[in-house]
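Reopening this one. Same input as before:
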Amino acid sequence: MTENEHRDHILKISRVPAKVTPALAGEARAIATRIAKAFNYVGVLAVEMFVVRKGSRRTLLVNEIAPRVHNSGHWTIDGATVSQFEQHIRAVAGLPLGKPIRRGRIEMMNLLGEEANDVTRWLEMPDAAVHLYGKTAARPGRKMGHVTRVFPE
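Same output, byte for byte:
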């Protein structure tokens, strides 16, 4: 599970593992599994959920279903043994799936707008991997790239 932090309604930071209870994580897996089975889905499927209070307990509310690789999973490029991109291709091509193992505690930050013009500070960090998307026009809120940091657990 990935824990996402939005700023101005745009994904800014993804953290893995998410800070949720094992029970809530199990509930999320069950919901995502039901959705994938209902669509007879093959490939990477992102199911965005909100943790909401229901009386004295916390439960999940599905917000978005993305039948594709998703920005909140870009951390897998550097932070897992198999990226979401490779796993998606394997699945739709009928190839054996890889065993995704997280390489540590992960933090991925989207570079929004002009933030992509100042990547020097990230490039100086030995635990940071910078990915620029090659977009030419930097507009406020536009995802221009991301930085992934992998920390030992």
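So the earlier flakiness isn't reproducible anymore. For the record, Residues 3-151 form a domain with the D-amino Acid Aminotransferase; Chain A, domain 1 fold (CATH 3.30.470.20).
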